[in-house]
Amino acid sequence: MKRYEDSYLYRLRHSAAHLLAQAVTELFPGAKLSIGPPVENGFYYDIDFPSPLKEEDLPRIEAKMKELAKLDQRILRQEVSLEEARKLILDETIPGMGEAVAEYKLQLLDAIPSGEAISFYDQQRTDREGTLHRFMDLCRGPHVDSTKEIKAFKLMHLAGAYWRGNVKNKQLTRIYGTAFETKEELEQYLVNLEEAKKRDHRILGKELGLFMFSARVGTGLPLWLPKGATLRHVMTDFLQKEQVKRGYEPVVTPLIGNTQLFIKSGHLANYREKMYPLMAVDDDEEYALKPMNCPFHIEIYASQMRSYRDLPVRLAEFGTVHRFEQRGEVAGILRARGFTQDDAHLFVRPDQLVSEFIAVVDLMQAVLKKLGLTNFRARVGTKDPESDKYVGHDDNWQAAQSAIESACQKLDLAYEVSPGDAAFYGPKLDLIIKDALGRDWQMGTVQVDYNLPERFELEYTGEDGKPHRPIMIHRAPFGSLERMIGLLTEQYAGAFPLWMAPVQVQILPIADRHNEAAEALRVRLMDEVYDSRPVRVSVDDRRETLGKKIREAQLQKVPFMLIMGDNDIENGTVGVRSREKGDLGAMTMEQFLAQLVG
Amino acid sequence: MKRYEDSYLYRLRHSAAHLLAQAVTELFPGAKLSIGPPVENGFYYDIDFPSPLKEEDLPRIEAKMKELAKLDQRILRQEVSLEEARKLILDETIPGMGEAVAEYKLQLLDAIPSGEAISFYDQQRTDREGTLHRFMDLCRGPHVDSTKEIKAFKLMHLAGAYWRGNVKNKQLTRIYGTAFETKEELEQYLVNLEEAKKRDHRILGKELGLFMFSARVGTGLPLWLPKGATLRHVMTDFLQKEQVKRGYEPVVTPLIGNTQLFIKSGHLANYREKMYPLMAVDDDEEYALKPMNCPFHIEIYASQMRSYRDLPVRLAEFGTVHRFEQRGEVAGILRARGFTQDDAHLFVRPDQLVSEFIAVVDLMQAVLKKLGLTNFRARVGTKDPESDKYVGHDDNWQAAQSAIESACQKLDLAYEVSPGDAAFYGPKLDLIIKDALGRDWQMGTVQVDYNLPERFELEYTGEDGKPHRPIMIHRAPFGSLERMIGLLTEQYAGAFPLWMAPVQVQILPIADRHNEAAEALRVRLMDEVYDSRPVRVSVDDRRETLGKKIREAQLQKVPFMLIMGDNDIENGTVGVRSREKGDLGAMTMEQFLAQLVG
Fold first, then answer.
1. ipTM, 2 decimals?
2. Of A149, A210, A358, A533, most Cβ neighbours within 10 A?
3. What is the pLDDT of residues A538-577, one digit of tens each?
4. How far is B567 from chain A (nearest CA, A)?
């Protein structure tokens, strides 16, 4: 698969950014342009306006862009020398150029390493009178061929952005926009965006009582409320069972470790900036919150002699790790400072690498399928052939890369190869999920590691009676539990599938006199098993009207409601309402249980 | 129930310590006595010997003690003035006294606060010739009446002990002994001690693959191996289900918190010495590993408006906490630095306190019963009537104490009241379990708390529409998961009951050609449910003889073995062996499943 950076869409959005700059130049004389790249869902341009811009100005700019786009300006690349470039940037006769607005472009020009090509993109058209109109911008490109191709775009919103991302510099105005190849795609994107707002996991997380944050507890540290904690439990329980079936062994390791461990693993040397401050007890005793589980699993592997027959050893843990993300990078449960990885480390012989890799990816596919995430692809990070920063023998790397690719092929998994995206210690595979709204989420990951077994001098005794070094595979199908729950909340807009729902059945006694029977039913239902787990059931015994209870259960997206009144208690039935199908009428418990399972 | 300190046994052991001192004085002239108290399972005496004592000397001392005991020496209390005491201690004519051996006794005398009674215990007898023999020791007492009562005792072992526990002081020789009222009790104790060695959870924990420690990971930080991790999971899963049935709601809260939280809760002021060093990010952002879960649960309670109808709110968490125990106090998984509490906090109205307390103790009893721990009693810690350190109104305390006592009575739970054992914030109940070897283990606890709701200004809206303050109940039926697993390992000598066993069924294929069928059976069995959880099953597919596989499964104390050979595969049967009953013959899977459940 093609990378976004190499796609037509990427070029189109880049050209849309230039079109935006051209429109601004026409509408706001004196506006100084800086940079305008394509980004994940569109593009932006950072501009120093002579007077503050308002959101209300965007439609006017957009209209001007439309007008300019239709003019079918050719977009031409022009390579020049440093000398010529400086002259062009200061040329008052070319729109976008001239000394008055050149401040940032000159700095950009100075930052281009000598020897590198300097290029401008020139939007040209000749009008009916034969006059040449142009707009030029210093830019590496590439771009589309004509502004006519920019048909489906929209300016989204404004933001502030410091020049070169440095708070000491001036704050510029960033105009965000998006562009697509067709109007239909743009429409869909805008509709999805509206829908995404409604599905925002931060809003739903609060409404559904999944998690909360507290300033007193600290930044990036979610507190999981009863329903969220239950959801976590359901998900870990499911994955645990799936893993045990596939020969994984669960372990539980400490949340902190002596710094000796992280010196040995290299984390203290290479990962220190993401670690919380160390806890020094005295000169020779110091602890750190673990940022990763690997060194602990290695200690378990190394705690006993291993023979070639014992391998693969697959140690799995729902391991809570802490990473000190910058305050600005923390984002709800999608990027928390304390989070739980569905981690495992496989210690394998070289001859097991391919089959174990395939088995890992197969597990990940099975997991995603069960979660209802069926639209995903893989990105295979391989060596940058130019670089020599990698550890491990070339033939090992070759074996690992072909193991990864053959796993994808064998499992019919779409993948793109991304050279240079490997870790320094081995190649990897990332899973990218497309959600119900067409957004990409980078989730689970598998990495092959030759480095840690070396650092910790891990061994197994081979069939030849001699010591050999195992290879490690790191993997996490969810990625993190927090992030996956964030994704699933948005994917399902909070209406989790039955097996996942924190409350599967809510019993609604009509009046206080039905509460006792409702409670008895709750306890009885808890002894039933659905999908290998006890049924999760609650009672709404508040003194509210039935109508209100139903509405609230509906808002809470509970899959089944059981209504209990006088008749029901007399007849031994319940009134069943399904989240999807509405009122299903009175049923006996046996009938309902059949409904639940079916 | 009587406290140990008030018992006859306690006095008897104290007198046995004096008897030991008398024997040493006779056998080792120049030996300087220091202190000799009764302790949990016996007594000791710390003595400064003129030349090193060896374990081989103990039988000789024990023989001398027996001889002296039989002499029926009366043990008399004698109260004296400071002046007289000094004179007595220096009196060369009395055995045990005299300047040459007075060093420690004089220091002990000086340490007695002025105004406090100074007493000696004098062991006297008059021989046939009418001569008075005596042995005196400075001692607060009390003692038994005659050395004749000390019939069943034994010297156990030697240890070093610094005078006054200070490493800067001289190291004395500590002689440990034990004593009982009857020879039978002593015999049973010694048998149990041998048995206890075999059951030592540290040894069994290693043999059964439950947990390990690593110097590189750090002191007091257990790593749970696959079987131990599974055992943890089974236990938490069981308790979670039991709790949800009883209206608890699970939560998951961070492992660390901003120090602001612990300042508010008072932990930083009152519990700092048990906390790991703080992690300061910058001047206004600092974190601490949580030593307790309470403040986090309070944040959840406080995150929304609560009405009197919402109470009680019962928040439960298997919360991992960290406490910096001194290195010498750390003891395997019984006292770790990182451990998991089966914690919950109940926020209740005053009128709910009694019923909620009863429900908590009922849950704890149900839990212990399920764990097979049926021999337990309660210790109720109440206010010290002399002290004014307690927070909260007297009538609240009265209500709480009578709630605790009436819970014990209603639930037919034996209890002793221990005045002065309450926390400063409320009375409490501790559960003390007697294990299979007759040893006491202090485990679960319930505490009533008026303090934290006050500090955090917790509220609920009463029926009167006005704000009221809830009461908190802290409780942990296991106490800690680690400690409970330690106890259970020793209780069952590793042969955990079926529902608890990490591996319930082990499949033993006879030869390699049976491995595939064994693996298929494993996966099939995992879809069966026993005690609301998937059956836990493993395959021993090593190339070992069946005999060896059976022996090892027996050592691993697996409840059921399923042997698979040619005939079995052909006939669709398995050869079943039970841990307790041995060979049960060939069965179909249906027959075996009936056996498993039955």
1. 0.80
2. A210
3. 999 988 999 999 999 999 999 999 999 999 999 999 999 9
4. 26
